[in-house]
Each structure stands twice: as structure tokens, then as C-alpha cells.
Amino acid sequence: MLAFLGLATVCLALQASFLRNFLHLTPVLGTALMFLFGFSLAIPFYLPSSMFALKRGGKDGSATIADAFDICGFGLLAVFNGIVARVLDVSGEVGSSSAGMLLGRKRAWLPVFLWMLGGSIAAMASLFGAVWLEGER
Questions:
Q1: What b/e string do you get for 4-39 counting C-beta neighbours within 10 Å, with b at 16 or more?
Q2: Which listed residue, 28, 39, 53, 110, has the most CB atoms within 10 A of its CB?
């Protein structure tokens, strides 16, 4: 699972590097990176929380624990959607040229990808810690 989460983090880091103009991505490569990000994030997102809920809650209480995770997750998603909504409002008008508008739009998306990158790094650290603590038992 750490490998999947590591792949998702690398995909986000590459996208953020593109937005900061550190590297050039073709549209096909950018699309492939976003697909790999979504594909590699699904298993580390769903599996550990489901296993924890089943282990701690058993067959009677696992749904309550999973719902508590969902409530916290949807609260964080509401904050994150506010950040994305601000990006979608940006017109991207840095200059009158289309290149200037594209540069403005790229700059507008950078905070979104940096928030996602930070969350992915925090998730990797906490997943590593949880796996290590479980192994100590």
C-alpha cells in the first residue's frame, strides 16, 4: 500500500513541478499522470480505513466507524472544494496573449496541487506509522 501511495505522491509532485515550470509535460503525459494518481490512490484510501473499522467495530459497529470516517472526510472535502472553486473563478488574465492566460491558469492550480501533495505526504507518513505500530504488536 505504501508503494501505491508513493506512486500517487510522485504523480502529484510531477504535476506540481509542471505548474511551477520546472519541467514540461505533454498533454498525454499529464493525462497519464492523473490516471496513475487516481488508480494508485484508491487502494490506500479505502482499504486501511475499512480494515480498521472491521477490526475495531466488528460486524455490529464497523458501519458506525466507517461513517465517522466519511463525516470527517466530507468535512475536509468541503474545505478543499472551496480552494478548487476559487481556482475555477480565476480568469487567468496575466497578459492579453493566450500564453499569458495559460500561465495564469497554471499558477492558479498550483495551490490545489500543493495541498494535495501535502496531504499525500502526510498520508504516507501516517500509513507508514500505522503499519510500523501494527508490526510492533
A1: bbbbbbbbbbbbbebbeeeeeeeeeeeeebeebbee
A2: 53
